[in-house]
Amino acid sequence: MFRAALKSLLGRKVRLLMSTFAIVLSVAFVGGSLIFSDTLGRSFTALFASTVGDVVVRPADGADNLGASTVSMPADVVRTLEEKVPDAARVDGRIRAIGVYVVDKDNKVVGGQGPPAFGGSYSDAPAGHGLTGLTLVQGRPPEGPDEVVLDTKTAQRSGYFLGEKVHIVTAGDQALITPTLVGLMGFPDGGTLNGATYAGFDTARAQDLFLDGKDAFTQIWVTARDGVSQQQLRDEVAAALPADLEAVTGDDAAEEAATDLLDAISFLRTFLLIFAGVSVVVAAFLIVNTFSILVAQRSRELALLRALGASGRQVTRSVLVEALVVGMIGATLGVGLGVVLAMGIRALFANFGLDLTGQPLIFAPRTVLACYVVGVLVTMAAAWLPARRTARIAPVQALRDDIALPETSIHRRLLLGVLGVLLGVAMMFLGLFGSVPKGGYVLGAGTLAVLLGVTAVSPVISRPFLAAAQATYRRAFGSVGNLAGQNSLRNPRRTTATASALMIGLALGCLMAMIGSSAKASVDDAVKKNFKGDYVVSSVFGEPFSRSIATEMAKVPGVERIVRQRWAQGERDGDFFGFAGVDPRDTEFLGIRLVHGATADFADGTMLVDEDWAEHEHLSVGDTYTIDKTPKGPLRLRVVGIFEKNPVIFFPTVTTLDTLKDQGYPTSDNALILVTQHRLGIKNDLDAVVAKLPIVTVKDQAGFAAEQREPIDQIVAMIFALLGLAVVIAALGIVNTLALSVIERTREVGLLRAIGLGRGQLWWMITLESVVIAVLGALLGVLLGIGFGVAMLYKLRDQGLEVISVPWSQLGLFLVAAVLIGVLAAVLPARRAARLDVLRAIATD
């Protein structure tokens, strides 16, 4: 039986090629996702290991990973450690700042989309354990206030060469500086900044730019003498420090920084694996369909094996052996393609600022294991149902000429499908509105249950559509159309199983289109209802910018009022916590309407909270709320007011500008609201203030709304690109089904040709059949996508998605694309059918 299974497989190489290709694609997505995420993790771990000293000294109790901070240590600490720590080979003060953007010669910002723009003081201090970190590789160190060094990738991307003036924008009081490039820094042993940029100045200039001229540092690196461990050195350093400073080993500092960052971007792995799972599910539909057709076509052969003495289990095992071989081949090819796909994903994310092009791909053993488990298990599981049916073929059926594969009861499928849909809807409701742990997983499982349930009942619910398609074809295309419609109706299970693969991809595509459209509509609605003033000044990256911009704009004739907003980030219970800062005098202008408390009590050390968030946190006026980590340690704020939801305020909690400043946050602005006279040309005057600062833009209402919509379009486009793989697999499923259907109907095709059906008519018949399958899948996908979208958006209405928008034009394009997929999918099967020899086709057994 084993030899018979292998011979059967070798005899049907072309028939199994398409299903093998589906396995290759789905395994490649799983492998590519794991390779990329491992590469991402390894790159950041290596990067942080090479950007810390043996021991790092920093302010105690403060958070070292919250971005920009004004907290520093006196330069005297360096001298103290040099004198009191005998095992220190050297002690180096360092200054680190964020928001130092390099602008290229075309006045465009280099980077900025995601990875930070670093600046600081140049230092040649070695990294921990003697590792070679960011080191001068060309030129010389900066000397004096008008010189700078850049990392090599930033210099390449910006087009600057040694000796040229560099255009740099900072978030400090000096918004624009133009130092001369004197050196390039890189990683001689390999590695990059993963898309971040770096500009280094001499110590005095860095103190002037980022510490208001104070003789201080934001970090101190202590390098160990040979033979001294990091822990031993840390203990010595800690003993010499005052109580407000702490010493940590470089290993601990690197692990802390890498863990925090990898936790923050862990959604990328989940995001990619979700789409890999979608591809696997779609491929499973294709494999089930393929093996069902193949087993049906081999029913006489299998029945003859039964007649010759093979047991039902032996016949079942022979089919599973074929599936095992196909799965192994598909998984092996998928592993190789996964490497290529990982490169593609790396290139895709490089467009969004996460540049890992300088990092070698990490190919871990677990990736290979996962690929083979997915490829083999999915194929075996998909082949099990048709293999199980083979055991029910009676030997006497070998004497029949027609296909004798038994089918499950349509009523049983209908019942199971309805139960699956009901169970899925219940799980989705629980995931969306219930208080259950891992609600996202419950929601995902419910969505899958609905999709599988609809697939099970589709042979029943699709009959009216298939009948209507046949009637339409008959009237529009005559006998050829009638034959195409009959072929679709002949085996509705096969037709709907093929359409279901496309249904899944388009359902998710429709869901994302609805979320994207609703997000943009909600932005437009919020801006229209709550836009304050005449112009908004903000960063294109959502990052802080120099407060000097407001000072300069206040000098523009016609500017009557400027309202500042600043944003800060801290930690509470280990999670990110964002809050805003405003001037208490501007609360009325910003439309902050209190439902409890009084604005007169809003002062330094207090906070206003959004009513929904107050209910979630069980806060009332008079309560004290503690933010666990800020640059200067814990921050305790007293709640003095609860306000109505306000889209102009980007965070649910608001404190004062001076509170943020006292807690170590920079005095940079995040948004300015301008009230102006309606003077002709005032917009041009305002634009002139930021003409050389491309990170900052001046927008009216329409421009501000457009800027808020832009990142939504980018995210949706990226998701569509990833979903495209599932649609490709679904299209292959249509090709495969049609090809196998042509093989199955070889004699019928020959008879049609013999009675006068032309090659063009045959081609047209198969194309119409393919279009029916594609349009059916598209309609089911669009309907399910709208249902999923409405449910999801209802859940997200408290997250700012208050407007539910159905992008009908985009959904119409999906249907047009489905017709195009149907036409293209029919090309190869129709070409094969048209080339069949008529006499040989009629004689086919």
UniProtKB/TrEMBL annotation:
It is a multi-pass membrane protein. It comes from the Bacteria. Its main location: membrane. It is found in: Cell membrane. Keywords: Cell membrane, Membrane, Transmembrane, Transmembrane helix. Residues 17-239, 495-660 form the MacB-like periplasmic core domain. GO terms for cellular component: plasma membrane. Residues 274-395, 721-837 form the ABC3 transporter permease C-terminal domain. The keyword Transmembrane helix applies. GO terms for molecular function: transmembrane transporter activity. The chain crosses the membrane at residues 16-36, 271-296, 323-349, 361-385, 414-434, 440-461, 496-515, 715-741, 762-791, 811-830. This is ABC transporter permease. It comes from Nocardioides islandensis.
